[in-house]
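Lab meeting notes turned into a lecture example. A postdoc, R.K., suggested we walk through two folding results consecutively so the class can see how the record format repeats. The first protein's sequence and structure tokens come next.
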Amino acid sequence: MSTANTPGPATMTGPSRPVHRRLVLAICCLSVGVTGINLTIVNVALPSIGKDLHASVSSLQWTVSAYSLVMACLLMLSGSMADRFGRKRIFQLGLLLFALGSLLSGLAPSAGWLIAFVSVQAVGGSMLNPVAMSIIVSVFTDRGERARAIGVWGSVVGITMAVGPVLGGLLVSGIGWRAVFWISVPIGIAAILLTQRFVPESKAGRARAFDLPGQVLIIALFSSIIAATIEGPRLGWADPRIIGLIVLAVLALAAILVVEPRRSEPLIDLRYFRSPPFSGANLISLVMTASLGGFLFLSTLYLQDIRGFSPLHAGLMIIPMAAGQALAANLSARLVASQGDRLPLTLGGTLLAVGTFLLVPLTEHTGSIYLLAAYAVFGLGAGMISPPVNHTAISGLPPDQVGVAGALAASARQFGSGVGVAVTGSIVAGTGAGFTRSSPTAWAVLGACGLATLALGVISTSSRAKAAAARNGRQIATAPIPAHQGHPAPR
């Protein structure tokens, strides 16, 4: 990840050797693909985990949300470490921690230990996505090739997320829920070895300083929002602990807006958000992954707990979503390279909304054909959105800002997934009604996320938005943050 104010390009270190760019791209795709699978493969195992470990609905929510929460909190820090200590080195460390967390998660004796080990997984995962983006950017120097490479990378992430439920169903039915974690161990080891052999080492021209206040505030903000959303229905929204979490979130957000602009090298450079494409891409990342995370969480509970399907049967039912996501992701990557970001974003938002609203009237006896069609439409929408989000996020920014911009978009993506699970799970668990009576509200909320994606796609890709992004990029490039702490950034 390039630093926010590095004047020059990243520097390559180590012995000079030919760089096989497509192979490097494949390794990056393999490494971040395993995190994409993990985001969805665990969902199919949730009912089995709940029965085996006697876990409550809130514990199952934490199992999924803890991964996304830790990832969201640490992505920027991990990118900064990669700038300082070397991207290849941090990338390999991330793979090692991810594999170790996966191994321990499969051995967890209780829900509490599982949540803790999943958090270890997430610490490693936070070192993969933003660093992979920086490696790709440093290897693909041509703007057109870079756009296509980022599109491929984004599509692979989407495809692996779609494959997760099917693979999870096979593993849970054939071996058990613990296998959904163990599958990542050999992949992680293979990726470590391939990275050592083929990925060149690189660092930022000047390492980014560690912003402790910013890191603490981000953790406080994200954690308090997720915790309040998950625990609110159980404890009651008037409970002093929930009120305290809400107050903490508000204070943390206010502090970020006051403190970060005055830092010499802030964790979050608020100047980026003056770019409509960048702000739009982050919001799209948040609402799209919130919709996807909530969709998979609700679908898993519905198919296994309400319909009584086995994990394998449930995974097979989601194949149309996986196939639609894979097909649309590939098509979207091509559209981004040839047509730009607007078409895939708006089309994806529309399909996302339609697919989710189709599930609002869901009952215990809804026909399988209807379900398969809704899943396919939703998958097409999710796949169509994934590739252009990364490209939109860096639109108009100077080349040395790409890594930071990518990390912020990735943080929004991870936080959105956690929010989606927390919100939909709380709606279903908090109404006191049966699943089929309370789930229409949850499905409608997810459908609204699709409509928001459509609107944001139109706004953030307009000619006015692109012009504003170009102006903002020039201002950032010519007026870097001052070198001394305590002074406001130039306006």
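The second example is placed directly after the first for contrast:
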Amino acid sequence: MMRALYIAKTGMDASQFQLDVVSNNLANVNTIGFKRSRGIFEDLYYQTLRQPGGQLANGNLLPSGLQVGTGAAAVATTRIFAQGTPQQTGQPLDLQINGDGFFRILQADGTTAYTRNGQFQRDPNGNIVTVDGLQLNPNINIPATAQQITVSPAGVVQYTLAGATAPQTAGTILLTTFINPQGLQSLGNNLYLQTAASGDPQDGNPQTDDRGTIQSGFLESSNVNVTEELVNMITAQRSYEMNSRAVTTADQMLQKLSSM
């Protein structure tokens, strides 16, 4: 009887974790470049009362045995890196990656982080930076007098100066791919870090080695599907209710035993 209480408790914990994941997805439905997460669960240790394939006293083998599970637990979250819906902004430094790849961002401590958020601006020194003031890696500088800034699908940043007709090249925006992007560590602020699980970063120009292209004047919306998340929320709620009902039922059976 007590086993049922603890099993139901693990189910309630798992449902709560699923609701946490869904809540975070819904909270970031308007976050540019956000990739929704999915909770991964597995069943826990099984208590074996009769070993499957064990031999009986008469020499016969047990065809199935007798095993009792001890519940479920959350073991991982994985990012779904499906492409988000494009939003047209008309700003030349609003950039969207069409396909695979991440923008390279230089952090304050000198390490490189990665993002799908292409909301870039120029700082007072003309460097292309994120909304948090972090530079691209490698850095690209555009003079204050620059006009008609363009970014090509291959990531080439160009501008013209007053009185000149020939465009000047400021640099090329590199993209990075990973063999296992689900293994990246989420830092917040739309940034990811390389880990041993993600594999080594594969840096290069857009449109090369299966990297995506860059679209200027567009931003990639969050790939959260609100309807799907609401369904997941209802499922998590009902699962929690059923497990709590199992706790109540086990408690009533224990109460019945104690009153006998």
